[in-house]
Specification:
The protein is of the alpha/beta class. The chain contains eleven helices and ten strands. About 3% of the residues have low confidence.
Length: 279
């Protein structure tokens, strides 16, 4: 079943994106769970999951620009894989100068690069968010679509109101910056409110609360509360559920079709172009 797409700059991106946290051993559970992910996700296994994603109709992966991710994507493409890559910059502690590291990321041909959400939130808290503007210029000059990530709905609103030059945002449905591994319903409600208010494509992350939410219910809730021009990036872990990728793709495609057939469905992108100052 075909998964509908959205536009991010000149690119068509499926509304379900496969997330790369498991590949980098980021479980949001425990050190032991993260180590198990690291052991499972060899280069061969990451490539197998990406192939399953493409076979299931998912055309994009969102993953950190770790060295091992970039090398794996390079190998996957050399073997014939065509999945698009949206790159997340690493944490600020993982590079000496971000503008230099962006040059490295660009060698592996992402369609888009977005600024790490936790680092964005720290800059905002310290009153230094405007320092991002030069980084956004650098990303655009590299020929990539430009994004900003955040866990704070207020940051999303601030960046939009202040006219940051981006093609998309990445917004967590749960506020990891404030609450770490507490996944609070109020956080999700605040994120949905901000996402619906901003007429720019937004990729929702942490939809499944790192495996704490039942997939079908979480996908349905998210799809009802994000715009038709938005997408979801979802980490998928196939060690104990080998068919998880294709099952998630099938579920999301079915849910989108069902929503599109509802009489009051918002099927087009118009109706979200509100004034920046009204947010």
């Amino acid at each position: 079943m075909k998964i509908p797409t959205i536009s991010i700059a000149s690119h068509r991106v499926t509304r379900l994106i496969i997330g790369g946290n498991p590949y980098s051993g980021i479980s949001h559970r425990s050190p032991a769970a993260s180590k198990t992910m690291e052991d499972y996700y060899t280069t061969h296994q990451i490539m197998a999951d990406l192939a399953q994603a493409e076979q299931s109709g998912i055309n994009t992966v969102l993953a950190r620009a770790d060295r091992h991710i970039m090398r794996t994507l390079n190998e996957y493409r050399n073997a014939g894989g065509t999945i698009q890559w949206i790159a997340q910059t690493p944490k600020a502690t993982e590079y000496a100068a971000l503008d230099d590291y962006l040059q490295i990321i660009a060698r592996y041909k992402p369609i888009a690069i977005y600024h790490h959400g936790g680092t964005t939130d720290t800059l905002y808290a310290e009153g230094r968010l405007d320092s991002l503007r030069d980084i956004l210029v650098c990303i655009r000059e590299l020929g990539c679509a430009v994004g900003i990530g955040t866990h704070e709905p207020q940051v999303l609103k601030h960046c939009y109101v202040e006219g940051y030059d981006v093609d998309f945002y990445v917004c967590a449905l749960y506020n990891h910056t404030r609450h770490r591994e507490l996944y609070l319903p109020d956080d999700r409600c605040a994120a949905f409110t901000a996402i619906k208010a901003i007429p720019v494509p937004i990729i929702a992350i942490k939809v499944l609360a790192a495996g704490r939410n039942a997939p079908r219910e979480a996908f349905q809730l998210a799809l009802k509360n994000i715009k038709p021009t938005d997408a979801m990036a979802v980490g998928m872990y196939t060690q104990f559920q080998p068919e998880q990728v294709c099952q998630n793709a099938r579920t999301v495609a079915q849910l989108i079709r069902k929503l599109e057939n509802e009489p009051n469905c918002r099927t087009r992108s118009h109706g979200y172009a509100g004034s920046r100052r009204s947010l």
